[in-house]
Amino acid sequence: MAAHYQIGGSSSAAISASVEAGIRGGTLAPGDALPAVRALAAELAVSPATVAKAYQELRQRGLVVTAGRHGTRVRPRPPVAARRAGLLPPPLPGARDLSAGQPDPRLLPPLGPHLAGLAAEIGAPTGYAVSAVVPELADAARERLAADGVPAAEITVTGGALDGIERLLAAHLRPGDAVAVEDPGWANLLDLVAALGLRAIGVPVDDDGPTVPGVRAALAAGARALIVTSRAQNPTGAAVSADRAEELRTLLTGRSDLLLIEDDHAAELARVPLHPLAGATAAWAFVRSVSKPYGPDLRLAVLAGDEATVARVAGRARVGAGWVSTVLQCLVLALWRDPATADLVRWAGESYERRRDGLVDALAAHGLAAQGRTGINIWVPVADETMVVTALRDAGWSVAPGALNRIAAAPGVRITVSPLDEADIEPLAAAVARAARPATPGGFTA
Ligand SMILES: Cc1ncc(COP(=O)(O)O)c(C=O)c1O
Predict the structure, then answer these.
(1) Which pLDDT does position 443 carry in this prediction?
(2) What is this structure's pTM?
(3) Atom number, ligand 1, closest to the C-alpha of residue 102
(4) For residue 440, what pLDDT is reported?
(5) Neighbour-count burial of 398, counting CB atoms closer than 10 A to its CB (0-12 exposed, 13-18 middle, 19+ buried)
(6) Burial 243-261 (b: 16+ CB within 10 A, else e)
(7) CA-CA distances (angstroms) from residue 406 to 101, 273, 290?
(8) Which of 235, 359, 409, 434 could bond to 414 as cystine, CB 3.0-4.6 Å?
(9) 439: which DSSP letter?
(10) How confident is the model at residue 340, as a pLDDT?
């Protein structure tokens, strides 16, 4: 739908500022189309080159996307705080929200006892002269990563996985460079890549991770970085298998021009072994977040990598945000050391697995093939995302349209299983089946 917003300005800077103001104010909403370059140029009495330059600047900052005959549109989540938040309408009152991709708050470890423990132990307040990484946390992280086969001699800490990935991309790439990402993939990552002015090249993903031909094609197309989700791929639940890891390592070994990033966000929640690619390329990083097992609000990830890459990330942080609060680092260390927390995380992993497998099986019984080998989401291929999201919303279930996750992948919807109880599974599967294959007027279901 074309936006009803009067874009103004007589220079490219003024035009792009006007579009940004529309996005900020909520009049230009995610998905809204901007006028064609020539039409806006005529309206504003400027040259088409001036408008094209404004659109290019907005594109490089990730505010808009230009997609061939679809023209230029506001991105689903532009990196500008806006009064209207996104493409998704809020769930109807009383609806179950399965759209958020969040862990189940009922299965996150309570922080109170650990904060009380910290309060008792913590010494005098620390100033600026602290080291960036608490040594005990670094040792514990090294031990955990080494147990999973990740070489972790060099390590730093970031404010979550996405912060680590942003720092890595900013340290190695320049605006306009291409990044290979899974397709379908994590919506926030696609938004970040766009906001950094980088170009995303989609790599198809199956249950075993990014496909080898897909990675090969992305490399041939000039990708300067490759981002692989180790386990619980968002949205498909893929996990890199032993065979796929070996094939990818063979393909990547010796590449000196590629930054390899692995995102192991499921970490201790994952119910399948890790098969890392770490070290296959000269420049590599392995990022493990604590968000999913211990809570997204902790905002902490550990980042291992080759010496030069870790030094770039840590050094750049030092001249900027500085470091991740040592109070937070000590809290994560306390959680890692607590056997009761380890039991809860194990139990949470089993519980997600039951709900996920239960829903995938129930959908299969209704004739729908869904993907969801690991993690908290499943991916259901559908012909028409909007129709399915709307029908499910009317039936009391809010799910995420795959458009947020896709570059060229076929349509689908993402369903987060973490809010589900056992009793929800069959009614939800039946509702998805009805929404995905509505009965034709004659009563025949195709
Ligand atoms: C693929 C992927 N990576 C990482 C994260 C978590 O990132 P962070 O540590 O920034 O919270 C998520 C959360 O949904 C995710 O889906």
Answers:
(1) 44
(2) 0.92
(3) 14
(4) 56
(5) buried
(6) ebbebbbebbeebeebbbb
(7) 16, 27, 26
(8) 235
(9) P
(10) 97
Q: What is the pLDDT of residue 439?
A: 62
Q: Six-digit token pair at 105?
A: 């708050």
Residue entry with tokens 């104010």:
25
User: Residues lining ligand 1, judged by CB closer than 6 Å?
Assistant: 101, 160-162, 186, 229, 234, 263, 265, 289, 291, 296, 301
pLDDT at 70: 79
Residue with tokens 């799910």: 399
Residues of the chain with pLDDT below 70 are 1-3, 83-91, 439-446
**Token pair recorded at residue 423:** 């009793």
DSSP string, 19-45: HHHHHHHTSS-TTPBPPPHHHHHHHHT
Q: What are phi and psi of 232, to 5 degrees?
A: 55, 45
**What 3 state SS string does 267-326 have?**
HHHCCCCCCCCCCCCCEEEEEEECHHHHCHHHCCEEEEECHHHHHHHHHHHHCCCCCCCH
Cα 288 to averaged position of ligand 1 atoms, centre (Å): 9
Q: Can you read off the two tokens belonging to residue 422?
A: 């056992």
